[in-house]
Give the backbone structure.
Amino acid sequence: MKKYVAIFLTLLIANSGNAAIGDLFLPSDDVEILNVQNFKNHIQNSTTAWLVDFYASWCGDCQRFAPTWKKFATEVATWRDMVRVAVLACSDEINTSICREYQIVHFPTVRYFGENYQSGKGVVVHHGERVDVQSVKKSVIEIVVNEIHEGRGTVYPNLLPYEASDLGRLFEGLPEHIQYVFLVVDPLDAHLGAEVALDIHKTPNISVKYSFNNNSELIAKLQIEKFPTIVALDRRNNSQLLTSDTNSKAVKTTIGTFLESKGLKIIEHIPEIKKIPSADLDLEHKERSKVVLRQHIKKMGDVIFQVDLEAALRYSLRQEVSTIEVIKGDQLQALNVYLTVLKKYFPFGHNSSSFIDELLKLTSESTEIKGVGIEEIVNRAENQGLFSSKQRFLGCQGSSTRYRGYPCSLWRLFHYLTVNSAQLNVYNKRNNPREVLEAMHAYVKYFFGCVRCSQHFQEMAAERNLTKVSSLDSSILWLWEAHNVVNARIKGDDTEDPEYPKYQFPTKFLCPECVQEDNSWKTDEVLKYLKRMYGRFNVRYIGADTRVLFPALD
């Protein structure tokens, strides 16, 4: 047994660094990776605008959005001297202060910061919705056009729509070296012309403008019948109508063909990104160690680890609750309820729950509190050695940093709380059987960073009648059923860890008596299984300092 524990401890030490491998964004991507140390230095007083995706690596919507953001960054690489595309991981503890300052409480959130930015929260471009690259481009272009309209956005070409009824003003305000103007006539609310203007803004001797098909006088004079149509005009007022397909690549090809006939060509200049080299030369060894560690944990079956429970607790308080600038009203009440069930049922060590007492007093006696105050209390508890482990995931560690982790540990935390509430209150007839479920519901509603996940859980709580739960045992089973509903919904999804495919648990292999011959559940056996798995006596202390938990045994 000692040898087995020694293997685990060796692997934990090798695995103690949080490597970037497997994160949603890497230095090889066409995005710039920001953090608390360089964020303000980059975006404040910058000669370019910035688009920043604030994300959490564990967030399913962030994982789905990451390929879109990378593709967007690649497709707008020619805009880089005007607007730079970046990311910042709010799931990384070092960035909590930035995410709190900019009030990033839902993921993913994309903000636009204009050139010469000095203060403010930026403009929201994207907020959790599932969108494609063209939708992101359209949103960005609308913000840029508004910036120019309000007298900012001087780094961009003039992207205000051309509204004159003839071509006489196309060269108005342009420098003498401009030989040709291309007017892209778009359907109303399209953004094709503006996109092309940004894409080829480095091409000398030309200017790209756009107009909409609601400019009826201009359309009638030019006899335009198809959209988009490109009008090429030179300094001698010679004009030519050019037809094109309805995408930016086709429009650029049409313009390029015209320019080639005049001995000119399109230039799409792509400024370089200065990559930050990785300082972790032992990354490959750490990744191999993680694989071995996961293999050992899998062999242990369905057990829970103190390390994961503490990781869920700290992450929720330090990187979700504390990112809210001011907590008040229903949010404050939800936090108080969450802290109350933690105080009652979390497996704290001797005297190690004192920081929860401090937080409970704060939430009970104040009408509003600051998120930074929550972080300070949790950090002080960390420094005082009130936690038995370092912040890491063990049983909830995924095959990469994007998988499992915090959501897995939060599920396990609430399963543990429901089971231990039932076991501790078995003779307490006055106890509210929904106490833990209501705390979870309120927490997910007001604090959980993944917007869509929160919405799904709230909808499921209503559909599955959470308010009708009437016993402690049915509370345990309600959460088990809810968890399996989520597993079924995301099975096969891109967010699923290939090493840990979603299944209906417990499996027949782990609990053969839980499943009947027709594959239906024996709920009385499932209940026994859940009480065994999430009971306090099934907690494993590998990676935890038991002297913190059980000082009398030292």
About this structure: The chain is about 45% helix and 10% strand. The first strand starts at residue 32 and ends at 34. Confidence is low (pLDDT under 50) at residues 1-22, 276-289.
